[in-house]
């Protein structure tokens, strides 16, 4: 008989990691070795787009031999092409002339406003109300799912812009958020059609457990029986897995999640992984193990980003690794038309090629992933493929999610366009004037 070896689990000690923000780029040891003009470029961009990184990320996730092409470096460090050349020049000139902090701040606000901080009509169209009063910090776009942006959780340190987060992060003026747990609860109690609450941001996991509990614990009351699922969107497994292992309130956090599960909720932790390189550390594996031990299901989603993960093998490897670690691949997104899109965007037909080349490499268990998908004004539109019908080359599309649930799952067609990167670049195929949902969508916009 084989001897059973008793492997001791690795011991994880609480660690303090320094956090660096945009004025501290000079202080980062590892950056001392990169060319001076590149460092200046990074400072220019960091004045416009938020920057924040901790030592765990740059010591343990970035392979400095691969910089600047390292994917995690691309994710968290600013790159010149993330802002457009004229914006870049204006900021660079101001800095060279020794502009004051105030002048830099004002120019930055102006440049950000030009970067479409709130795409897809999210400020005008999705804001729920109670007694006619708009509830800031909430979005209710699809019947069954309410999004909540807790104001204590509006930080994320990466530049990918498929979510709402960069606009949340940069300043109060663009933010939508709420610290009003009572409004959230009143709204949910009054809306029996809502089955899913999605806590998002930023990253709700930067909140202390005590605060998180105020939002989540009441959901175990019977007036919230219809809210079956609590989703929490988070990058913390990448940036701060210690959150679930050694942070002072880690145990309390896990207990809170377990309590929700025991009360009959499905808790889905929506992990944002852009590249397999983010999931390789022991501490990350331990965090995943602990989260799963509470009964939480981890699902994974990420945008496809040029310069970072525009590589089918990286996706295939990532999905396989997710399955191996007990997580479920869920979405591949297409970069939204906001923030640093110009740097990360990939033509739609390429997103489909990459998705397909990755998808065909993995077993069925990893094919739970959907995409590539655009979170556009009318809904989540998936590129199902490129095809030729009666001699016309077309995109085959479908709604995964839509403002009108009846639009979902009906194939529709757009003219093939090699340069298109977003839904509004597309024209209906077969000489049609508009897409089947277009009139109705226009009338919803008022
Ligand atoms: C993606 C998304 C959801 C969730 O959609 P599912 O198909 O249920 O994953 C909800 N609200 C908004 C605004 C979204 O973008
Ligand atoms: S999508 Fe996720 S990882 Fe990217 S900026 Fe938003 S929260 Fe961060």
UniProtKB/TrEMBL annotation:
The answer to keyword S-adenosyl-L-methionine applying to this record is: yes
Gene3D superfamilies in UniProt: Aldolase class I (3.20.20.70)
Note whether Chloroplast occurs among the keywords: no
Q: Which GO terms describe its molecular function?
A: 4 iron, 4 sulfur cluster binding; catalytic activity; metal ion binding
Keyword annotations for this protein, in alphabetical order, are: 4Fe-4S, Iron, Iron-sulfur, Metal-binding, Pyridoxal phosphate, S-adenosyl-L-methionine
InterPro entries named among the record's database cross-references: Aldolase_TIM, Lys_aminomutase/Glu_NH3_mut, rSAM, rSAM_sf
Q: Which cofactor does it need?
A: [4Fe-4S] cluster; pyridoxal 5'-phosphate
Family of this protein: Belongs to the radical SAM superfamily. KamA family.
Task: Please state what the protein is called.
Answer: Lysine 2,3-aminomutase
Organism of derivation? Aliidiomarina soli
């Amino acid at each position: 008989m084989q001897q059973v070896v008793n492997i001791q689990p690795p011991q994880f000690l609480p660690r303090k990691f320094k956090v660096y923000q945009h004025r501290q780029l000079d202080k980062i040891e590892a950056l001392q070795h990169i060319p001076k003009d590149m460092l200046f470029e990074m400072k220019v961009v960091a004045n416009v787009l938020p920057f924040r990184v901790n030592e765990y990320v740059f010591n343990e996730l970035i392979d400095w031999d691969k910089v600047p092409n390292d994917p995690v470096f691309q994710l968290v460090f600013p790159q010149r092409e993330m802002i457009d050349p004229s914006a870049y020049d204006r900021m660079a000139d101001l800095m060279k002339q020794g502009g004051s902090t105030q002048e830099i701040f004002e120019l930055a606000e102006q440049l950000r406003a030009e970067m479409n901080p709130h795409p897809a009509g999210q400020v005008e169209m999705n804001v729920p109300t109670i007694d006619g009063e708009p509830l800031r910090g909430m979005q209710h776009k699809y019947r069954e799912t309410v999004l909540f942006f807790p104001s204590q959780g509006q930080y994320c340190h990466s530049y990918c812009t498929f979510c709402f987060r960069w606009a949340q992060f940069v300043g109060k003026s663009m933010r939508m958020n709420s610290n009003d747990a009572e409004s959230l609860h009143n709204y949910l109690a009054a809306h029996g059609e809502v089955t899913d609450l999605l806590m998002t941001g930023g990253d709700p996991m930067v909140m202390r457990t005590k605060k998180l509990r105020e939002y989540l614990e009441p959901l175990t009351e019977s007036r919230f029986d219809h809210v079956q699922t609590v989703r929490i969107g988070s990058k913390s497994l990448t940036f701060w897995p210690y959150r679930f292992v050694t942070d002072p309130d880690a145990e309390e956090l896990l207990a809170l999640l377990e309590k929700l599960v025991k009360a009959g909720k499905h808790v889905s932790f929506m992990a944002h992984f852009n590249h397999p390189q983010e999931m390789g550390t022991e501490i990350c594996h331990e965090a995943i193990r602990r989260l799963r031990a509470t009964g939480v299901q981890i699902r994974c989603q990420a945008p496809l980003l040029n310069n970072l993960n525009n590589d089918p093998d990286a996706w295939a490897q990532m999905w396989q690794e997710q399955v191996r670690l007990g997580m479920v691949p869920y979405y591949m997104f297409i970069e939204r038309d906001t923030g640093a899109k110009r740097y990360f965007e990939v033509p739609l037909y390429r997103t489909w090629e990459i998705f397909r080349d990755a998808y065909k490499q993995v077993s069925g268990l990893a094919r739970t992933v959907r995409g590539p998908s655009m979170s556009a004004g009318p809904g989540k539109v998936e590129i199902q493929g490129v095809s030729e019908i009666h001699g016309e080359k077309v995109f085959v599309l479908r709604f995964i999610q839509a403002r009108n649930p009846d639009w979902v799952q009906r194939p529709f067609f757009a003219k093939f366009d090699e340069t298109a990167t977003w839904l509004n670049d597309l024209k209906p195929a077969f000489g049609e004037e508009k897409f089947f949902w277009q009139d109705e969508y226009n009338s919803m916009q008022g």
